[in-house]
Amino acid sequence: TAEEDQEIRKRAAECGKTVSGFLRAAALGKKVNSLTDDRVLKEVMRLGALQKKLFIDGKRVGDREYAEVLIAITEYHRALLSRLMAD
Fold this sequence. Notes:
87 residues, mainly alpha, Arc Repressor Mutant, 2 domains, 4 helices, 78% helix, 0% strand, elongated
């Protein structure tokens, strides 16, 4: 139907794939990630790297608040990556 065609085109675009590439991946049972998921993962990694740089450059190795933020970012990154790999 026209609605299904639009939905397929929308999902393919969200993944940065052509319609044929999207359908091929789906038919072969391959995991198809949304570009949004990839962008979020990269942004979390970027924020973690910035936090680590601030932590080291500020010579605040014993600073509990910086450490807690860095740990939270790392845990969120791992959870997000795990969820994406499971999909």
